[in-house]
Amino acid sequence: MIIEENVSPDCKELFEPISANLFDTLYPDIESIRIEIIEKGLGGYSYKKKYVLYQKADIGRNIECGNPRCTGGELELKKFVDQMYRRKFKNLNLIQWCQGYKGSPYGKERYGACPNQFEIDIKIEYY
Ligand SMILES: [Zn+2]
Question: Can you tell me the distance from the alpha carbon of 7 to that of 30, in angstroms, rounded to the nearest whole number?
Answer without folding.
Answer: 24
